[in-house]
Design brief:
Layout (H helix, E strand, L loop, with lengths): L4 H10 L1 H67 L3 H13 L4 E8 L4 E7 L5 E3 L10 H7 L9 E2 L3 E2 L6 E10 L5 E10 H11 L6 E6 L4 E4 L14 H8 L4 E7 L6 E8 L5 E8 H4 L1 H19 L3 H33 L2 E6 L5 E5 L27 H9 L4 E9 L5 E12 L5 E10 L1 H49 L5 H25 L7 E4 H12 L7 E5 L7 E4 L1 H21 L5 E12 L4 H4 L4 E10 L29 H11 L3 E7 L3 E9 L3 H7 L1
Helix pairs in contact: 1-2, 2-3, 2-5, 2-8, 11-12, 12-16, 13-14, 14-16
Length: 703
């Protein structure tokens, strides 16, 4: 038992000037002895529990085998009484033996030591008649019962041997058969598959870092883990020691020589209460006491150093006081550091009680807000039409859930609108009762203003790029209009036909008009128009309108079943978006050589969770993923990131405006969806539009 620290300290102080060295060395020696004893006791306890577990598993297997043996004994006795042949007798218990696959064989051995009847499993696992008339008079399976009496006879387990039919290693359990008048009739022998025992061993192998064996009560080895490195059937090296120990107890532990290497070991054993087997776990004392030896070496070093300094104990006490003082200084420094950081940053800490009243509110940022101590936490929030996470925060508080980085509007000290980012965890007492929230926050009002300013600048730059691109495109179309109008006028003066020039002017004007329409669509503002639309009908209508412009070598395929769903979109805008994607796919194939391919339109349901929202930029919910896939030449990887930019196109200058995909992206975003692109250069291109699905109640109403 360890020394009481206070008493031990007082004793060492009193005896410091008289016997400091003796006291210190005695204490260290006692600690070393105690540590060694604790290590051995812990190992004994650990492996005793393993031995009990293993013994229980082995006993369960042997109990099933004994039940079959009991039925076999009864069948033999009844056979002797009725005069029936053994062949008829074994049919009554064969069904029972068939229930346990690990029962490999069952046999009767008569009083003369010969097998009279036996059954064994074949390669298919069925019990079939086995060999008979085999002489077993010299085998211990028989001799263990021959010299016994009905009162002294007991179960016997033979060593592991090879069974007939399948050649599977078996362990034979035998039980004597005696008549009512005490006459020896023979034995019933049940063959147990040896791997049924080893399976129990392997089940605990991860927990056993030692030699684990199953030993017959007379010391013969019956099973073991591969690490045991023992030969089955050999006598256990420490058989005499544990036989002596078994006389007093069914389990225990002792130290003895090693099994194969001669090293000292801690041996734990557990005898089965019913069966003549003992589980033995042997662990090297070197492994158990490795940590103790390190402790002993360290203690010896400390003892030597302590013996040099008579005042070692006083020095130790001084060091303890200094260490405590340093800990207190470090704690005060840490508290001061945290306080300074809070005062110098825009962060604050807060805490509420179970009634959502603020009980703590600290940090430099608290100067920006009105006093909150003692007030309800809801007084902290402000009302605004700008998007924020206040509803999500309220739901988390109702559900007593933690929340992270929620942006909420807050009232400033002067009543102005401020913005805060906050995170918190709920508190619970030792009984699990809700006790409020504890969290941190940051004032992000100025950061938000800067972000809005940057966003405004970005929009201005984007508008400039759009205006510049539009001016460039319109200017390119004005050139042929001016040239062809002049040529038309000259043709009229020369009395030639000016109509070809007017046709070219008309086509250039139509293209300019198309550019203007696309720009208006791309830049339109206001609330988006949304209505429930059946996707299948809308897509088929678009394909029918475009079919007259599809070259003969290109095929457009629709997966009708996959499109049978309703989405929340603008029907006209959907036609424009899907039409642009189909046109791009058809023109991509037609522009390639030989210009033969297929454009496939399909759809599938997609459920977007919290984890996918950042990757696709969508709110969580149910969407229809509409895909337009073509097997054209694809898009180079270095250009994939620019396909949705205004006026970006891979076509020649006279064949495209570069606004089609920008229009698609703008339309889809107004519906609360998203659009993505994936391409394998030389093989395929796939555009995917995520469209919000209509709830089932609205679908039923529409039907």
């Amino acid at each position: 038992m360890p020394f009481d620290r206070t008493a031990n300290l007082n004793t060492r102080v009193v005896l410091l000037g008289l016997a400091a060295i003796v006291v210190i060395m005695s204490a260290l020696l006692l600690r070393v002895v105690q540590t060694r004893s604790q290590g051995l006791d812990y190992a004994a306890q650990k492996y005793t529990e393993l031995a009990r577990t293993l013994e229980a598993g082995v006993s369960a297997t042997l109990q099933s085998a004994e039940l079959v043996a009991d039925f076999a004994v009864l069948a033999a006795i009844e056979s002797a009484k009725s005069g029936r042949s053994p062949e008829e007798a074994y049919r009554e218990f064969i069904a029972l033996a068939q229930r346990w696959p690990f029962i490999q064989s069952v046999g009767f051995i008569d009083a003369a030591g010969r097998i009279s009847t036996s059954v064994g499993r074949d390669v298919d696992g069925n019990l079939v008649p086995g060999p008979s008339a085999v002489d077993l008079t010299k085998r211990d399976t028989f001799t263990s019962h021959r010299d016994a009496t009905a009162a002294t006879d007991a179960l016997f387990l033979s060593e592991v041997r090879e069974g007939y039919n399948t050649g599977t290693p078996i362990l034979i359990m035998s039980k004597g058969i005696w008549s009512a008048d005490g006459r020896f009739l023979g034995i019933a022998a049940v063959g147990i598959r040896h791997d049924a025992i080893t399976d129990v061993f392997n089940a605990i192998a991860p927990a056993a870092d030692s030699s684990v064996t199953l030993v017959r009560a007379d010391g013969v080895l019956l099973a073991g883990l591969p690490a045991a490195r023992v030969r089955l059937g050999d006598p256990y090296p420490n058989a005499y020691l544990f036989r002596e120990a078994l006389k007093a107890s069914a389990e225990g532990a002792y130290d003895g020589p090693g099994i194969e290497d001669g090293l000292s070991r801690r041996v734990v054993y557990r005898a089965a209460p019913r069966y003549p087997v003992v589980v033995v776990i042997a662990t090297s004392l070197n492994e158990i006491l490795a940590e103790w030896r390190l402790s002993a070496i360290a203690s010896s070093i400390v003892g030597v150093l302590s013996s040099i300094a008579i005042a070692g104990l006083t020095w130790s006490l001084v060091q303890r006081i200094r260490a405590g003082q340093r800990s207190q200084d470090a704690l005060r420094e840490s508290e001061g550091r945290l306080r300074d950081m809070l005062e110098c940053s825009s962060d604050y800490m807060w805490e509420t009680d179970a009634n959502e009243q603020v009980i703590a509110f600290a940090g430099a940022a608290t100067e920006l807000y009105p006093p909150m101590i003692g007030r309800w936490g809801g007084d902290f929030a402000a009302s605004t039409s700008e998007p924020n996470d206040l509803p999500q925060l309220i739901e988390c508080v109702k559900a007593r859930k933690p929340y992270r980085n929620l942006v909420i509007p807050a009232l400033g000290r002067a009543g102005e609108l401020r913005w805060a980012r906050t995170s918190a965890n709920p508190k619970f007492d030792h009984n699990g009762v809700y006790a409020g929230y504890r969290g941190v926050g940051s004032d992000i009002t100025e950061v938000r203003k800067q972000q809005q300013l940057i966003e405004a600048q970005r929009k201005t730059e984007a508008l400039g790029r759009l205006a510049s691109g539009l001016a460039h495109e319109i200017n390119n179309l004005l050139q042929p209009i001016l040239i062809y109008s002049t040529s038309g006028a000259m043709a009229h003066d020369q009395r030639s036909d000016p109509r070809p020039f007017f046709g070219k002017i008309s086509r250039a004007a139509e293209q300019a008009s198309s550019i203007v329409r696309n720009v208006l669509t791309f830049t339109r503002r206001g609330m988006p128009k949304r209505e429930p639309v059946w996707l299948a009908g809308a897509v088929r209508e678009i394909v029918d309108l475009l079919s007259v412009r599809v070259p003969s070598g290109v095929r457009v395929t629709i997966d009708g079943a996959a499109l049978d769903r309703m989405v929340h979109v603008d029907r006209t805008g959907l036609g424009q978006a899907v039409g642009n994607l189909l046109t791009n796919g058809v023109e991509s194939i037609a522009g390639a050589k030989p210009g033969v391919g297929e454009v496939v339109v399909s759809a599938q349901d997609v459920s977007i969770g919290e984890a996918e929202t950042s990757a696709i930029n969508l709110r969580p919910g149910l969407y229809c993923r509409l895909t337009v896939t073509d097997n054209g030449p694809g898009i180079p990887r270095e250009r994939l990131g620019n396909v949705f930019d205004p006026f970006f196109t891979t076509k020649p200058q006279s064949q495209g405006t570069g606004l089609g995909l920008s229009v698609v992206e703008g339309l889809v975003k107004t519906w609360g969806g998203a659009v993505t692109v994936a391409s394998e250069p030389g093989r395929r291109t796939e555009f995917a539009i995520y469209l919000p699905q209509v709830e089932q109640q609205q679908v039923n109403a529409a039907q």
